[in-house]
Amino acid sequence: MLGHHYTRTFLETAVASMNAGCNLELSYGMRNNVFMHIPQALATGNITLQMLRDRVRPLFYTRMRLGEFDPPAMNPYSALDMSAVQSPEHRNLSLEAAVKSFVLLKNVRGTLPLRAQDLSGKRLAVVGPFADTPRVLFGDYAPVPEPRYIYTPRRGLETLPANVSFAAGCREPRAPPLHPSVVPRVGCKGLSLGCPHAGTDVETEAKDRRDLSLPGHQLELLQDAVQ
C-alpha cells in the first residue's frame, strides 16, 4: 500500500490492513516490517485489543489444526523422511493432476489429443525455446524438482513412435532467431508443434509485461512453422 501511495507510513499501513481484515504479512527479509507497528497502533487507540484478538484467532486455529502444537508422536507427518519427496506415488499423482487439468481452447479438426498409433512412422517437428528448457516450466514462486523427473515437451514427445526433430529457434525469449531456416521440414506426412514462451526472464512479480504479444522473434518462428 505504501508503493501505491494509499498510505504514507508503516503505522498507517498496519492500521489500514488490520481494519481491512488482513492478519498475515509476507515480509521476508524485512527486520522492521509493517505489522511490527501493531503495538504502537494499539497503544495510540487506532485499533482495539478485541480487533487484535479477532485477527490472531484464525492464525492459531489453523496452526492447531495443522498439529504444530502437538507432540511429534501424535503428528503423522513426523514419520515421513526425504524418501517421500518426489516418490513415484507423488509423481504419478502430479501427472494425473496435470492430465486432468488441461484446458483446450481450440481444437481444429480434432487434431488433439495426439495418439501414438496415429504417429507411427511420421515426422514430428518440435519448435520453440519452451520445448526443451526445463527452468521455464515452473514459473515464479515454484520449487524446481530433480532434473531427472522433469519432462519437457520435447522429452515427452520423444516417447511417441515418431521421428522427432527439434529446433529451439532462439536461446532466450527475447533473443533473435539462431538461423533463418531453423524450422525442421516435416513434409506432408508430418506435424509441427510450436512451443513459444515468455518465462520469468520476461515476467515475474514486480516485472509486468506491457502486452500479451510473444517476446522477441517468436511470432516469426511460429509463422515459419505454419509455413
Automatic annotation (TrEMBL):
Superkingdom assignment: Eukaryota
InterPro entries for this protein: BXL (IPR044993), GH (IPR017853), Glyco_hydro_3_C (IPR002772), Glyco_hydro_3_C_sf (IPR036881), Glyco_hydro_3_N_sf (IPR036962)
GO biological process: arabinan catabolic process; xylan catabolic process
MF terms (GO), sorted A to Z: alpha-L-arabinofuranosidase activity; xylan 1,4-beta-xylosidase activity
Keywords: Glycosidase, Hydrolase
SUPFAM superfamilies given in the database record: (Trans)glycosidases (SSF51445), Beta-D-glucan exohydrolase, C-terminal domain (SSF52279)
Domain Glycoside hydrolase family 3 C-terminal: 103-225
Protein name, entry field: XYL2 arabinofuranosidase
Native source organism of the sequence: Ibidorhyncha struthersii
Lineage: Eukaryota, Metazoa, Chordata, Craniata, Vertebrata
